[in-house]
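ok new one. same drill as before - structure tokens go in, u give me an amino acid for every spot. 384 of them this time. try not to just spam alanines like last time pls lmao
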């Protein structure tokens, strides 16, 4: 079939076909959807807390025993007996060691015998003096004999006192052969084995006993901190007045925290360091702290009224310092550098400068927030 057969001239067919193609192109362009920009990303925002805060400061220190005693041999002899278990708790008066007592028992017995002899000599001298004093009244003896008898009586009295002192000293030496703990505390190991000769030329160290409940912590603080505390408290307060400075001992390895108090303050500042030494005392009845531990001691310092606080997790850090992502009234993100203050126990941090209480900061969705870009702020717990 050809165009002539259908009765259409060839030019008309060409124009009709071209018109159909152009119409299809127009319809195709009209049906294509327009590109729509995505909405700003959603972020969670909140406003700072405002409350009164006590600023705490932490200092590094070391623990020391509340009491510490070295048990030494005070007499010479062989170490016969050890009656304690190393690294155990002992009580005041509990027997720890025995040094051979036999030589000292003999000395004690000899001194006791010497005292008895001196007492007998004194009785005889008293009797002679009394007899002569009666005889001189009848001129049976001379006054010179009475004087001599009185001198002999005085010598016998002195000899008895000397014998008493010798017995006391012998008993003391015998008592030194039994070594007892002078305090309640934790005993260390024995430093000398049984059978060794001790106390020769020196007081041999046998063991140590340390009382660790309560326990001390010593640490240094700056004179500025002390001056501020003394100003706030109206000057130094004597211990025992009930106004001791509260303190908390922190053991980072275990997260242990023990509340106690400051019981000692040196009476001078070290001019070479500008610091002063403090001592805290803390209960330790479960013996979780040993002397020599490195610890941190937290002390209350400055009181901030109406402080501004934010969640610690919302803070970022870069070369410029610590910052928050702020959302302004136009919902645009701003990176705001701030001056951080101390971290609180509830994981909020005091903001000293850079944030107003009525400003919103981002707590969640920080990875989607860019400075200068708009966001869709949501409060915690609100729906989309």
């Amino acid at each position: 079939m050809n165009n002539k057969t259908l009765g259409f001239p060839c030019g008309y067919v060409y124009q009709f076909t071209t018109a159909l193609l152009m119409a299809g192109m127009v319809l195709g362009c009209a049906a294509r959807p327009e590109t729509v920009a995505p909405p700003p990303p959603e972020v969670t925002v909140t406003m700072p807390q405002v409350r009164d805060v006590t600023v705490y400061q932490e200092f590094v220190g070391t623990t020391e025993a509340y009491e510490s005693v070295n048990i030494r041999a005070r007499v010479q002899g062989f170490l016969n007996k050890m009656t304690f278990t190393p690294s155990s708790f002992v009580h005041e008066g509990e027997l720890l060691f025995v040094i051979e007592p036999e030589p000292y028992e003999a000395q004690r017995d000899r001194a006791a015998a010497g005292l008895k002899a001196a007492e007998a000599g004194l009785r005889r001298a008293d009797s002679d003096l009394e007899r002569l004093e009666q005889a001189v009244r009848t001129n049976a003896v001379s006054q010179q004999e009475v004087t001599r008898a009185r001198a002999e009586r005085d010598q016998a009295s002195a000899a008895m006192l000397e014998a008493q002192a010798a017995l006391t000293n012998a008993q003391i030496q015998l008592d030194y052969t039994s070594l007892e703990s002078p305090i309640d505390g934790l005993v260390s190991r024995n430093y000398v084995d049984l059978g060794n000769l001790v106390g020769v030329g020196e007081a041999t160290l046998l063991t140590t006993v340390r009382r660790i409940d309560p326990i001390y912590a010593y640490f240094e603080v700056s004179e500025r901190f002390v001056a501020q505390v003394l100003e706030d408290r109206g000057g130094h307060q004597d211990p025992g007045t009930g106004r001791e400075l509260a303190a908390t001992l922190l053991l980072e390895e275990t997260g242990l925290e023990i509340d106690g108090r400051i019981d000692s303050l040196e009476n001078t500042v070290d001019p070479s360091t500008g610091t002063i030494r403090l001592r805290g005392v803390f209960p330790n009845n479960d013996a979780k702290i040993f002397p020599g531990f490195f610890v941190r001691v937290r002390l209350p310092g400055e009181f901030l009224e109406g402080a501004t606080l934010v969640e610690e997790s919302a803070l970022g850090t870069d070369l410029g310092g610590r910052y928050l992502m702020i959302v302004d009234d136009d919902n645009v993100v701003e990176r705001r550098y701030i001056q951080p203050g101390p971290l609180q126990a509830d994981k909020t941090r005091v903001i000293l400068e850079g944030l107003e209480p009525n400003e919103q900061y981002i707590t969640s969705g920080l990875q989607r927030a860019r400075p200068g870009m708009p966001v869709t702020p949501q409060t915690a717990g609100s729906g989309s």
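The helical segments are 3-6, 10-31, 102-136, 143-175, 223-233. and btw Residues 1-8 have pLDDT under 50 and may be disordered.
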